[in-house]
């Protein structure tokens, strides 16, 4: 077993044994510990877990989606990626245009009600097909608001301009690698209310030393 995976397993054990029980918006609740950190040396290989299934294709397509600055699930669906479907689906079923079965609280109900789960999957399938086939519908209901891609590639300023944080940080790494400003932030307090889901990985900072690039990520 790799050192990187052992870190993950040790953290899981620590959370299970010592975690604080917290309530959350889903009603499920969590166990959590604050401020833990893991370190991965990529020169030793990519830290892929083997103790749970990791669909790397979905990880890659989601990251490319972020880097494109895209905020619409259509690209993800074109790459068979369903990670963000529920957030867009919620907007659709809560709209005045939706006339199908009642989908209130579909996430929880689909877990406990088999008949409802079948209805939900039928409606989700129809929704995904329409996003893929109907550009106008996709533009309206496939959109997730000012999520990661928008903040990374087109952060809105008070002057009505935009900032390409990814493009800027790449140029700084090339030209001023000793800078302490090699930072990209997705947490834009003004835009958080308009996001389908506020960013989990809120910011990251790069560091260059001895010809090597490091990155530190803060996860809320």
Overview of this structure, please?
Its EC number is 2.1.1.45. With 220 residues, the protein is of the alpha+beta class. It folds into 3 domains: 53 residues, no CATH class; 86 residues, no CATH class; 62 residues, no CATH class. The strands form 3 sheets. A 3-stranded antiparallel sheet has the order 5-6-7. A two-stranded antiparallel sheet has the order 1-2. A two-stranded antiparallel ribbon has the order 3-4. Strand 3 and strand 4 form a beta hairpin. Helix 5 crosses helix 6 and helix 6 packs across helix 7. The model has no long low-confidence stretch (mean pLDDT 95).
Structural key phrases:
alpha+beta; 220 residues; three-stranded antiparallel β-sheet; globular; two-stranded antiparallel ribbon; 3 domains; 14% strand
Give the ordered list of helices and strands: HEEHHHHHHHEEHEEE
Percent of residues in helices comes to 40-55%
* Strand line-up across the major sheet: 5-6-7
Uncertain stretches = none
Tell me the span between the first and last alpha carbons: 28 Å
Per DSSP, the total helix count is: 9
Query: What is the CA-based Rg, rounded?
Result: 20 Å
Mean pLDDT: 95
Number of strands: 7
Give a short account of the largest sheet. 3 strands, antiparallel
Broad shape = globular
- Going by helix content, strand content and strand pairing, the class is alpha+beta
Structural domain count: 3
């Amino acid at each position: 077993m790799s050192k990187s995976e052992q870190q993950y397993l040790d953290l899981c054990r620590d959370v299970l044994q010592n975690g604080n029980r917290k309530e959350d918006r889903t009603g499920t609740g969590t166990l959590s510990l604050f401020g833990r950190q893991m370190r991965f040396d990529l020169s030793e290989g990519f830290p892929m877990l083997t103790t749970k299934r990791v669909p790397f294709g979905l990880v890659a397509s989601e990251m490319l989606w972020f880097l494109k600055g895209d905020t619409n699930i259509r690209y993800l669906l074109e790459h068979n990626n369903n990670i963000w479907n529920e957030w867009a689906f919620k907007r659709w079923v809560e709209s005045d245009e939706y006339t199908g079965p009642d989908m209130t609280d579909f996430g929880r109900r689909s877990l406990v009600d088999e008949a409802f789960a079948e209805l939900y999957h039928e409606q989700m399938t129809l929704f995904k097909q329409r996003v893929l086939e109907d550009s106008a519908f996709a533009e309206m209901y496939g959109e997730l608001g000012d999520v990661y891609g928008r903040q990374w590639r087109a952060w809105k300023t008070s002057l009505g301009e935009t900032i390409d944080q990814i493009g800027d940080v790449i140029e700084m790494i090339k030209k001023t690698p000793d800078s302490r400003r090699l930072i990209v932030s997705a947490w834009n307090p003004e835009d958080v209310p308009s996001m389908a889901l506020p960013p989990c990985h809120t910011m990251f900072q790069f560091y260059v030393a001895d010809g090597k690039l490091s990155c530190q990520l803060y996860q809320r």
